[in-house]
Amino acid sequence: MTSSSFLQYIIGNTVASPTNLRRQFNLPNLTSGHQKRAQFPSSPPSACLNVHVLQQKKNASGIGAKSKEIMEEDAKVIVGTYARAPLVLSHGKGCKLYDVEGREFLDFTSGIAVNALGHGDPDWVQAVSDQARTLAHVSNIFYTVPMVELAKRLVSSSFADRVFYTNSGTEANEAAIKFARKFQRHTHPDEKNPPTEFIAFSNCFHGRTIGALSLTSKENYRSPFEPLMPGVTFLEYGNSEAARELILSGKVAAVFVEPVQGEGGIYSATKEFLQSLRATCDEAGSLLVYDEVQCGLGRTGYLWAHEAYGVYPDIMTLAKPLAGGLPIGAVLVTERVSSAISPGDHGSTFAGGPLVCQAALTVLDKISSPSFLASVSKKGHDFRELLAKKLGGNQHVKEVRGKGLIIGIELDVQAGPLVDACRNSGMLILTAGKGNIVRLVPPLTISERELETGAEILLKCFPSLD
């Protein structure tokens, strides 16, 4: 397995078997030619990231002995669903991560847009520590204060009237599917066949459980698990006319759309597209569902990504950054939708526990500050301009796009070599789309200087694409 194959650990284009994992740990091609030279840069990047530390303890593949041992143990006991990067992380601070050998990395992944406050935020740590000592879990058989307080804050800061908690983004979308179908049955009590179908769009990603996977467009995610949930039609993202025609058929329970697509390639909707969906759903009685699992909660410089358009949904799903690294998801709904849901219609053992809700209160309080959101918007604008200036003349760069601190660099080649080169130079980045888009989602707390350093490392590593 070549070094570039490790980009699969994010975009999931292959499912690694234990045999493939063992092969990747040997990394036979990393010792050849330019790859080996790129792994040990002659001088560290300008931020003095410690990628040169403890090189003498690495084996011939360039992986430290301790890291290699842990990866080999992983291959023996972990189900092989991930083709991971050859990196064993031990701790983090702010926007930096460190591996078990002590190397330092500038983190432009945020755990896939999860660690919005970076690593080890002191207020978050204090909230988690205090709540863990007080009460961690009781299930939804009982009430707890953090659950109610977080719901009140989410409602007061959004279009929604009520909240349902889950443990992840895919579970939030599963709940939204169920709520949409129950709503249609509730509003069509005398019809034998109320609307049950769904619309989703090209390049979309809504999760990996069966219902959410059925709404996810990427064929190689779907095909190993077919047959999936029937009744889903995929339309071109942004095609208002096709959506209108199908919605008005009267068969559509709900339309699922990401205001800004993350996994699909950092594509943003237009206001006209969302307005058309809203108007047509209202006309037909279908529900409009926004998936803001990745683009929500400050990532675009707005608290909710759809606020930039002024077009509001009936249901919104959240997850990734909400608890700052702890597992939580949420489904925000209007009172009209909530009125269709009865006790026993859905549930979760762990969702909405006091520990994760208290962590989420801390995250939400920080991110919802107008000054914090303004800083995200400014940093994102300045960073995109800097990237366009530094990389715009590169033959492989087709476009730099995004909103706030969710940024995509579209290339005319696969991004794998660049991912590897950046990692070897002390910077962690992701891919998106079909593997040809660099996805940059750093902590929202990242400094201007760290953004400049990231741009410098990217510029330095672009020759790897040649």
UniProtKB/TrEMBL annotation:
Compartment annotation: Mitochondrion
An MF annotation (GO) of this entry: pyridoxal phosphate binding
Transferase keyword on record: yes
GO-annotated biological processes: L-arginine biosynthetic process
Entry keywords, A to Z: Amino-acid biosynthesis, Aminotransferase, Pyridoxal phosphate, Transferase
Gene Ontology cellular component annotations, sorted alphabetically: chloroplast stroma; mitochondrion
CDD domains with a match to the protein in the record: OAT_like
The enzyme's E.C. designation: 2.6.1.11
InterPro entries to which the protein is assigned, alphabetical: AcOrn/SuccOrn_fam, Aminotrans_3, Aminotrans_3_PPA_site, Class-III_PLP-dep_AT, PyrdxlP-dep_Trfase, PyrdxlP-dep_Trfase_major, PyrdxlP-dep_Trfase_small
Pathway assigned in UniProt: Amino-acid biosynthesis; L-arginine biosynthesis; N(2)-acetyl-L-ornithine from L-glutamate: step 4/4
Cofactor field: pyridoxal 5'-phosphate
Keyword Transferase (UniProt): yes
Homology family: Belongs to the class-III pyridoxal-phosphate-dependent aminotransferase family.
Name of the protein described by the UniProt record: acetylornithine transaminase
Naturally occurring in which organism (per UniProt): Spinacia oleracea (Spinach)
Gene behind this protein: LOC110789871
